[in-house]
Every structure is written in C-alpha cells, then in structure tokens.
Amino acid sequence: MDANLEQLGLGTAAPDARAEALVASYERAGYARVSPPILQPAEPFLDLSGEDIRRRMFLTTAPGGTELCLRPDLTIPVSRHYLASAAAGKPAGYCYVGPVFRHRTDASPEFLQAGIESFGRSDQAAADAEMLALGLEATANYDLAAPDIRTGDVALFAALIAALDLAPAWKRRLIKDFNRKTNLAQDLDRLVLGGNNSRPEYQGVLAALAGSDPKGAHALVTDLLSIAGISAVGGRSVAEIADRFLEQSALGASTKLPRDVRGLIERFLAVAGDPDEAAAELRALAADANLAGELAPALDLLESRNGFLAARDIDLKRVHFSTAFGRGFDYYTGFVFELTDPSRTGDPLVAGGRYDGLLTRLGAAAPIPAIGFSVWIERLAIYGGAA
C-alpha cells in the first residue's frame, strides 16, 4: 500500500513546526498522542459519516472482499483505537496530527488534520466548553486571535422531535436529515401533505410491506435480495439494505403533520444569536408549546455549558448560537461548533462536536460520552500566517 500511496503522490505531508507545537501543548494538557493506521475499514465511514465524506473517500477491496479506505477523517480511527485499548469505557483523551485523504477538485487529496478526541467524561457541559477553549488555542497558535465562533446543539432538535406525535420512523428520518437542510424541508413538506412520494417503481413493494410483521417483512426482503444475487452495496450488507426498505415502507404510511406543528419546528430552527439570549428564547418557546418538561434536560445542559464557557473567559457575545446549525456528520448528537475566518473563505479552521452515540455503533457494549474537534492545518497556515 505504501508504494501505491507514493504512485498517487500521497503520504508525503508532514506537520509544520506550529502544528507540532500545537499537539505538544495538547499532550501537556493531558491528551495522549496517537497515530492510527492510514488504511482503515471502510464500513464505519460509509455508515456513520456524512454524505460529503462518503462521496470523496478513496476505497479499495482486500483479496478477501473486505472494503478498505484511506482514512478521510481521524475521529473514527481514534475512536476505534480507544475501544481496542485497555482504557475502553474509562475516561481517556487523545490528540493527533497526521494526513487524511479525500477527493478534492481544487486541492491535493491529502491534507493534514490535527485535533483532540475525549471519551468517557460524565461532566458534559464542562467537557464541551473545554473543547471549544482548546480549539480557540489552535487558531491563536496561528496568530488568528479572534475567529468567528458558530455553535449549535443537535440534542435540542432531537428533544423537540422526540416530543412530537410522529411515527418512530419519521422521527429518525427528521433527526437524520437535520444536517441536510434541503432534505429536512422536503420531509416537512411530505408530512404536511400526508402523502408518499417514493419512486414509482418502489411503491408496490413498499405498499406490500406497510403494516407487515417486522420480522417477516425483513426476512422477505433479505430473501429477495439474496435471490437477486445482491450481497452488498456501498459497504452495506443485505440486512442493512432490507432495513432501509422497511424504513421507507414506514415513512410511506399515512402520517400527517399539522401545519401548526410545522410552524413550531420552523420557529425553533429560527432561534439564533447570543447563547444566553437563545436559551431564554427557547425556554419561552417550550412553555408556549407545552413542551417545557420535554425540552428541560437539553436546555439545562445548554445553560450549564454557557456558564462553563464564560468561566473559561470566552465572551458569549462573540459566540453565534443557532438551533439550525449542524455539521453534516451523521454521528453528532449534541454540542457542535466551528471556528472560521470571515475575512477569507469562511471554510472551517477548527470544527467538532459531541458524538455520544458513535462508540456503541462501533461496537462498545454500553454508551460512552465522547466529544472532539479537528484542526485544518493547511487552512490555518494560510489564514493565520505561515511559520
């Protein structure tokens, strides 16, 4: 594989002096430095990353048929490293700097990524604030002292959707599409109209599955795919493809969303501004909608996080919070943030968030709190000034 990397012109990026100094500072803060293998199983990235990463991955197939990839990101590889270690299930933190690989039309497919991943901490609000503070250290390290700070919280949207009277399949769909704003708007349109606009060639199959016994329907679809000679598609097994068909069947069931409920969702997604003011506005919205109890835990966490951010001397007036802000990754479950330089392109320089559900999806026996962030070294070297 190393020879293939050289032929592609990959595997040559090296951290600059500032990147090394940044990671050394993270080591001094108690985060152990790790360097996961460049070649990774493709399945976790195909299943758990956002569409933007999936379509830009470098994929290959091992002789035994296993799909592999050049790591397009380091969060999943570091998470797998943690789960394979003796620290799995216990509080542990890691830092890193190294190359990642994605197809890019306007730049090299190989670029450096630094960052931190923190696992097992129960003090979520404090951990969230620490990640943002350490992310700000990265921009300061490259002489960008006052980046724009954008934050959001996926858990707030999930709490709102969980409180609505919707079929479970629709709740899963809306939460999944939170990071895909066009898809989310289309889903809300479908719910208000109460119709099924699935592709015509699938409607007969989906209608036949609607209301069927789940186990029997799953077995039927699995058998049909096997008879057709389909073993896997894009890293997804026959069983996973069958699950997708059954979900589409459930989404096509007669479900209608009252327009006032859609109005509530849109009012929620319009909340933005100072984090403290946003929290107060969300408290008022929850009270108006008789959802104060359902949204209270997520709002309590937001307000607690604001307190920890202020305690770290982060001026909340500089922080732009938005309930609609997401990062395009399927695994985020809570606090998310991006640091940008608006005088340049607006591309993230540092970005991350909370992903409490990822570790179980990677094989952990029980949920493990997790949060981290990535640093785009090449962007900081340009935007903040080269060493």
What does this structure look like?
There is one protein chain. The protein has helices at residues 2-7, 17-28, 43-48, 51-54, 75-83, 124-141, 154-163, 168-176, 181-193, 200-209, 214-227, 238-251, 259-269, 275-288, 292-311, 358-361, 377-383, and strands at residues 32-33, 39-41, 59-61, 67-70, 92-101, 110-119, 148-153, 232-233, 236-237, 272-273, 319-322, 335-340, 348-354, 370-376. With 387 residues, it is an alpha+beta fold. It has three domains: 1-145 and 341-387, BirA Bifunctional Protein, domain 2 (2-Layer Sandwich); 148-167 and 177-187 and 257-336, no CATH class; 196-251. β12 (335-340) and β13 (348-354) form a beta hairpin. α6 crosses α15 (292-311) and α11 packs across α12 (238-251). The longest helix is centred in the C-terminal third of the chain and has 20 residues, at 292-311.
Radius of gyration: 22 Å
How many domains is the backbone divided into? 3
Overall residue-averaged pLDDT value = 84
Supply the helix-strand structural class. Answer: alpha+beta
Q: Beta fraction of the residues?
A: 15-25%
Provide a short characterization of the protein structure.
Helix content is 47%, strand content 18%. The protein has helices at residues 2-7, 17-28, 43-48, 51-54, 75-83, 124-141, 154-163, 168-176, 181-193, 200-209, 214-227, 238-251, 259-269, 275-288, 292-311, 358-361, 377-383; strands at residues 32-33, 39-41, 59-61, 67-70, 92-101, 110-119, 148-153, 232-233, 236-237, 272-273, 319-322, 335-340, 348-354, 370-376. The strands form 3 sheets. It has a 9-stranded mixed beta sheet, sandwiched between helices. A 3-stranded antiparallel beta sheet has the order 2-4-3. Strands 8-9 form a two-stranded antiparallel ribbon.
